[in-house]
Amino acid sequence: MPLSNAHKSDLLLVVVTLLAGISWMFSKEAVLMMPPLLFMALRFFLAGGVLAIAAHRHLRRLTRDHLVRSLQVGLVFGIAMSFWVMGLFHGSHVGEGAFLTSLGVVIVPVIARIVFREPQPVSTWLAIPVAVAGLALLSLQHGFRPEPGQLFFVAAAFIFALFFLMNTRAANTRAETNRQGVTVQKDRVPALLLTALTLLTVGGFAAVLSLILEPDWSLTFADFPPILIWWVVASALIGTAARFYVQTYAQSLSSHSHGVVIMVLEPVWVALFAAGWFRETMSGPQLIGCTLIFAALLINRWAVLSKAVRGWLRPVRTS
């Protein structure tokens, strides 16, 4: 019996979380051998270039409005990714970092409420104290002495939340009031075009930061070991270009919101991959803290989760 588009979408989104999870391993290996911001520049220039080739038809019809909105989204994403890669560089525990970064999912509705005045369900406000408790267990194990990597990951989570909201608004048609009080219709930016321009902007932003903050590039490239080229290419093509392409295609197959629930699997995969790849283990407080953060993700998406479960079980009941 052939799979429905909705089920194909769900399976592909699981693949997306796996690609995202394994990308953490590629990135960690790379930043152990090269400046982290330079790595981000190379990774996103390569990934953005591949997707720009795929989006060449959209690029021919690029409007000034689409370009400006894509650059704005890309700049915010670039700031978030710069904090993230510095967290990966300074952090001592990859799995923990993944759960800290996933706090962005909980922060999204808070920023939506404060900045864009969007109403939020009760589950949002129930999830926040659970997430804070998990964060406290991770950062207060030895008194209030959070590691630099943890601070970078938490900062990245906040900026990722803003990026998600800006990206969603750019990718959808909406009405917007300008300074003169006139309502203007903003057309959606095609997903592939938006992704390509966003990734290229991240690459450019990281390159500028690297030039300012990191050592001489010529010395860095002279010392490139061959395996490092693999980590950069794998991060760019598998963890970035392929991931975003599969995610865009999966979301085009179904209008259901199951994907929001499936995407919270990413930190779980990262923790499992890190345990096998880097032999990472978690202490009791770390494990409880990560569990609380994961619980907060599910509470925050409870309405979508319950709807998704009913959708997954319905075919079973009718068969």
Query: Which structural class do you get from the secondary structure elements?
Result: mainly alpha
Strand content: under 5%
Stretches where pLDDT falls below 50 for ≥5 residues? none
Coarse morphology: globular
Topology as a string of helices (H) and strands (E): HHHHHHHHEEHHHHHHH
Helix content: over 70%
Report on the architecture of this protein:
This protein has one domain. Strand 1 and strand 2 (183-186) form a beta hairpin. The chain is mainly α and 319 residues long. The protein is globular, with a radius of gyration of 20 Å. The chain has helices at residues 5-31, 36-54, 56-60, 64-90, 94-101, 103-116, 122-139, 148-170, 191-213, 217-222, 226-253, 258-262, 266-277, 284-300, 302-318; strands spanning 174-177, 183-186.
Give a short summary of the structure.
This protein has 319 residues and is mainly alpha-helical. The protein is built from 15 helices and two strands. Helices cover 78% and strands 3% of the residues.
List keywords for this structure.
3% strand, 15 helices, globular, two-stranded antiparallel sheet, 319 residues, mainly alpha
List the helices and strands and how they pair.
Layout: H1 5-31, H2 36-54, H3 56-60, H4 64-90, H5 94-101, H6 103-116, H7 122-139, H8 148-170, E1 174-177, E2 183-186, H9 191-213, H10 217-222, H11 226-253, H12 258-262, H13 266-277, H14 284-300, H15 302-318
